[in-house]
Backbone:
């Protein structure tokens, strides 16, 4: 994600107007604010006359909208996360090979909406393996929203095994997200308070916060250092800090510094 | 399996000598005895001069032995169970497509030995998902001994998901075996004693007996009515009877009759 941010700032430095991102580039409001100051505007309107260059956000973009953007003659700049891109390709491959494509993920998340456009008309989204599965047929292919926990994938596949005879699973969970979850869990078990830094609309940041809370440990999910409250740290000897994939380094450094200085309101 | 038995008896009726089966045709000693009386002999020796026709048993046969049998000029009669045959083809397909083939099953079972010959040199047998998994690589294909319980498959796939990125599963569990397990479990919950009829060397019969014992319910695994003991039924109002896939009807009928007549020693 950091690459996508750097690349977009570089584009904004060269070109001063008409740069849009399809939806927010990443799920971090502070970065989006900085980009706006540089003239990079998030839009959901693919037919806006002011668009010259359209940046595809890290979560990807539905195929039919991408085709429309090309028809509109915009310069398309693809900042799709490589893990998401792989998942899209696998969804397409499965669909072409005659599999009923099942996407494990959050229906409302732009990444999943993008993936769905590669899964074909018969694609099915399953959220966290909880709801009733529809009849999927005998040949089922699975791809996963890159920020899903591996436990959810295991549960889903176990349920598909009960009804289908041929199942092809692409475990498209982002390995750095999985690693961050693991490291965060280890850290959370050793400290008294956990601070999770990142966009409240960021799926992977929220997942980190939920993981810490479930341990259980006192957990605070903040977007910036300004939200810190010194009362949170009363009696705490050790404080753990973790951050989502889309949280920029300057925000993390700011939080670290403020906590070290016994900061917060 | 009953088709294989009928077919073998029909062959024996037409031809009087030189008919061999590679290993016992099915895992039922009483049927094997009857076949022997008809001149159908089980053998493990592929180079026996007396062989004219060689019947491939329901569990299948390793590929290289089949090739040797053809070289020896024997007439080969394939009585491989269609479910086993499918599993063999899937193992071959996975191997050709570059998957590391994992077979879920009992290492010592002839069906698994046969499957293994289709899985290629890199194939791995995993028994019931208990032992440590070796490193399997990123592309793993799974086939299942037809008599395995689906729970074991779910567990195995969950473990593979943790280490591999692309997993293709052929759920080759025999649907009639799975159905028989389900029906047996339902029956066992309603009766006071369960009688499981079938070869003690039959994997699916033993599985039925173990399932009943685990409920728990008083369970007796017998091969023939002669083993019945009237003391087993003292105080019992309802008796359940189930049988393995390879148990012939005449043995089941015999057991039923004997129990109805308050039989046994």
Residues:
């Amino acid at each position: 994600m950091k690459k996508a941010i750097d690349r977009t700032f570089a584009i904004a430095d060269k070109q001063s107007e008409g740069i849009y991102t399809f939806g927010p580039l990443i799920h971090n409001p502070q970065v989006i604010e900085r980009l706006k100051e540089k003239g990079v505007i998030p839009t959901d309107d693919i037919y806006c006359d002011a668009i010259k260059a359209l940046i595809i956000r890290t979560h990807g973009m539905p195929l039919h909208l991408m085709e429309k953007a090309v028809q509109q003659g915009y310069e398309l700049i693809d900042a799709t996360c490589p893990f998401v891109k792989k998942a899209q390709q696998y969804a397409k491959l499965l669909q072409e090979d005659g599999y009923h494509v099942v996407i494990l993920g959050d229906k409302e998340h732009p990444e999943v909406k993008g993936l769905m456009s590669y899964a074909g008309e018969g694609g099915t989204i399953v959220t966290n393996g909880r709801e009733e599965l529809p009849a999927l047929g005998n040949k089922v292919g699975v791809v996963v929203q890159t920020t899903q926990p591996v436990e959810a994938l295991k549960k889903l596949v176990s349920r598909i095994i009960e009804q289908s005879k041929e199942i092809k699973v692409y475990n498209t969970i982002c390995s750095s997200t999985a690693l961050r979850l693991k490291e965060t869990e280890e850290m959370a078990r050793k400290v008294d308070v956990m601070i999770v830094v990142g966009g409240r609309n960021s799926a992977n940041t929220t997942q980190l916060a939920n993981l810490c809370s479930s341990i259980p440990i006192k957990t605070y999910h903040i977007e910036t250092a300004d939200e810190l409250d010194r009362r949170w740290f009363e009696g705490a000897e050790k404080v753990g800090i973790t951050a989502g994939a889309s949280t920029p380094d300057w925000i993390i450094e700011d939080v670290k510094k403020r906590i070290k200085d016994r900061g917060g309101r």
Summary: Chain B has a mean pLDDT of 90. Chain B touches chain A through 16 residues (CB under 8 Å). The first strand of chain B starts at residue 19 and ends at 22. The two ends of chain B are 31 Å apart (CA to CA).
